[in-house]
Amino acid sequence: MDRIDDLEAFLAIVDEGSLTAAGRRLGRSLQAISRSLATLERGIGVELVQRTTRLSQPTEAGRAFYHRIKPVLQELNEARLEAATRRSETSGVLRIGASVLFGPAYLVPVIARFMERHPQIRVELELSDRFVDLTDEGLDLAVRIGHLPDSSLKARRLGELRRVFFGSPEYFDKHGRPEHPQDLWRHQCVVRSTDRQDDAWPVLIDGKSGTVRVNGRFRADDAASTYAAVAQGLGIGFTPLWQIRDLVDRGVLELVLVPFEPPTVPIHAVWHGSKLTPAKTRMFIDSLARELECDRL
């Protein structure tokens, strides 16, 4: 395999446009740069750079080789830097963002176990239901629920979350259970009034996504109130399963219309798109992926 310094010399020649400038960038002599290029070309068996008195330009083969090896060499250098800094970066403050309900219930247990394994790391958890800017808020990473907009952030998919229809046993005893999404129109529905589309619930019918219109006598602008209202028998609700999992497990609420649940919603860890990710951030993301088990939520 060609030596790394020969590859670095070739990249510097193409970037700088001359052997002399490449030598200055790498802190090597002109003779050393020239030897590296000659060794590389001899090993590959093709001319990579056309030399003139003042300029050095890549050949067609050289340009293709440049574009193939540049990202590989960058990754290799970053890997070496990560390995060298891994020990020092497993300390300090890790600032994490998450949604108001999800953070306490599902992230805090993972954080507690992570802090026990890494006693030199301190964690600050910032909760918001907005997709906040990581840089503006000073966050190292955030856990986001929903489809991600295009951005410069890196992301790792942690799993998927179900969205479900639910009601109380008392309500179903009095009013019956809906067998099809269209039946919801004849039922009282408890709506969370957060936007103009709050009365259009997503469904999946015959493999196709759609919506059904719902109506009811009770509305609230926060999730906890809607869950309490459904538990009191005021109607049928719709929400991510993880938010009512404990109530379902205890029999306070029951799921309906399971075959018609809309597509699952992805959950991701997102962090800064810089090439080098601090070890503390990378290690916590690994812990999330291993311990969160979002396929059950």
What does this structure look like?
With 297 residues, the chain is an alpha/beta fold. It folds into three domains: 82 residues, Winged helix-like DNA-binding domain superfamily/Winged helix DNA-binding domain (Arc Repressor Mutant, subunit A); 102 residues, Periplasmic binding protein-like II (D-Maltodextrin-Binding Protein, domain 2, 3-Layer(aba) Sandwich); 98 residues, D-Maltodextrin-Binding Protein, domain 2, CATH 3.40.190.10. Helices cover 40% and strands 23% of the residues. The chain is built from ten helices and 14 strands. Strands 4-3-5-14-6 form a five-stranded mixed β-sheet, with helices on one face. β3, α5 and β4 form a beta-alpha-beta unit. α1 packs across α3, α1 packs across α4 and α5 packs across α10. The longest helix has 26 residues. It is elongated, with a radius of gyration of 28 Å. It comes from Microvirga arsenatis. This is LysR family transcriptional regulator. Keywords: DNA-binding, Transcription, Transcription regulation. Belongs to the LysR transcriptional regulatory family. Pfam families: HTH_1, LysR_substrate.
